[in-house]
Amino acid sequence: MQDFGIEGLVYEILSWEKKYERASLAVCSDWIKAVVVKDFESLMSLAEFVTDKKLPKLKIIPLEAIPEVKIELPKQNGVLGILSDYVKCEKSFLPLKNFLFGNVVLVESRKIAIQLSKSGFKTITISGEYFEAKATSVVIDNNSKISKLTKIINMSDSVEGLQQLIAALRQTVLKKKNRAKKLDLLVKNYEKRLSLSELGMTTTTNSLSELKTRIAQIIQNKKSFESRINQLQRTQERISRELINRKSHLESLESQIKLVRDNYAEPQMDRIANELTLVNEQIVEQDKKLTPIQNELKQKQSHLAELMAHDTKITGEKKNLQHTCSSMNQEKYHLEVDVRRATKDKEIAESELVKLRDEEQKLISTSGTSVERMTEFDNSLESLNSKERDSTKEISSRERNTDTLNRDLTELRQKESKITSLLATFGFDISIDVFDVGSTISSLESEQNRIKNSLNAGAPTQYVEISYGYKSSSSKKNMLERERNTIVAFIESVEKDKRQTFLDAFDIVDTQVKDAFSKMTGGSAWLELENEDDIFDSGLNYLIQFPGKPKRESTSISGGEKTLAATVFVLALQKLNPSPFYLFDEIDAALDAPNTEKLSNIIKERSEGSQFIMVSLKDSVVEKARLIYGVFPKHGVSHVVKYKDKRLLPSMSNQE
């Protein structure tokens, strides 16, 4: 690319601080991907190359042809300066910076930008609002940026670039997938919370309806009790008035009796005494009737007080439930809003994921044809070389003819000037008709243009680029193949070692299983691989044959037999990878006495290399232990007794 005089792309040459990024991108958005070349000749060469290759739209900026741009900074508050002062670049690219940003004034606010725009200045705010002169148009840049992906796409002219692009796309797709999964989990969480809230809402609604029913019933009972109390109070008042009347009547009678005793005879006194006795009896009866009514009134009043207290309590509970219901409604509304937002984010993420997958497939399909295109380029290089040689010969011959014509034209012009000067001495007029050579010149120029168009000026450059790309791709391919062969050889060696290690361990465990099972039961047991060709993806069969019984797998035997088989397998693994100690919890519970005895003998034999801690209730196991802890209950409390085998003491002293 150096043959075209390319200096780089605009976004590679220029830089700015984060604060002025939006303003800079809004101004140079149309030129940000333009190609910068040295001079106008480089521009023409690159333009011909782009036209021949039928490439898409491309903007080219020649450095030497950039006009000088300079404006006077308006003196007004809120003006920060010329935007080019806030853009950074090398000294050689100053004309480019002035060309793009030298006529734009950077201001603080939109109001100042509009005022200066009406005055004839191009203005830009820090937030990216770009106003053309005379307020003819406005460009607003919210959040534009040049992504790393865009740079890769623009600069990827090889298989490596496309592979880098595919890797970037896959990483982006993976991020989108992870984000979609998080959104799914978030939506599920919100749905669970929403279902719980709806369940709580339903329960609260049911409780509220029950409370409303109970409150209505209590209110009805309250009304009936109040009416009954009012009736009783009226009865009490009536009886009280009667009592008062009776007492007043009694007092009058007593006064009359006293008067009669003083003034009347004995028979009249007896009659009055009888009447008085009768009145007293009536008063006693009325008192007896009044007592239960008063008791009932007191009971009703106490019951009414209880009902009013209960009513107050229920009213408080109702308010609490209403408050809880309103809060749950608010939470339900927020959850529904969050669910809708999460669903919308999920849909957006899924659509972006689909677009990225489509782009990935396109790039994968494009990268798959790069090798074929490279082969086509190699085949076309030979034909281009031959065409180049023929074109070079034709160009040299045409150049010789052109030099001859130029010399003849120079001589003719010299002669013409001499003749013109000679004629001028004789009064020659310039307006006189002269010989027309325009048709001859135009025919010669058309022939020259035809010769230029028939030549491929970019063939050498294209050949150099293609050959360089082919050589670099071939070297990278060879390097990758060597690395691949090394990795494959390493993987094969690891797989071989892994397989051999597994088979050695398998043989050891199989031998130990056969030996231990034969000692314990007199039968036979062994291990078999389901698929010897693929030992890591297949399973392992544990086959057992007790004396007098057919062989069976470990999954189809009884509980006691499974215990025995599992113990044998653990003891076999002990030989492969011994542990410092083993802990067994009543593994002999399902074994009969002979098998328990055999198990205890094998554990005693294996205890020479490891320590066995075993919980057992069988005498044959306990009697072979060197250290015994017995646990027994006494008065509701567990007690522990310790017994150490006396045979252990001499061995311990010998070790000391």
From TrEMBL:
All residue ranges annotated as the SMC hinge domain in the record? 4-117
| Coiled-coil stretches noted in the UniProt entry, renumbered to this chain | 208-242, 339-366
BP GO annotations = chromosome organization
* InterPro entries named in the record: P-loop_NTPase, RecF/RecN/SMC_N, SMC_hinge, SMC_hinge_sf
Query: What are the entry keywords?
Result: Coiled coil
Which residue intervals are annotated with compositional bias (Basic and acidic residues) in the record?
Answer: 385-402
* Pfam families (alphabetical): SMC_hinge, SMC_N
Q: Where is this region: Disordered?
A: 377-402
Q: Which GO terms describe its molecular function?
A: ATP binding
The record's GO CC annotations read: chromosome
The protein in question is named SMC domain-containing protein (Smc)
Q: Which organism is it from?
A: uncultured marine thaumarchaeote KM3_18_D11
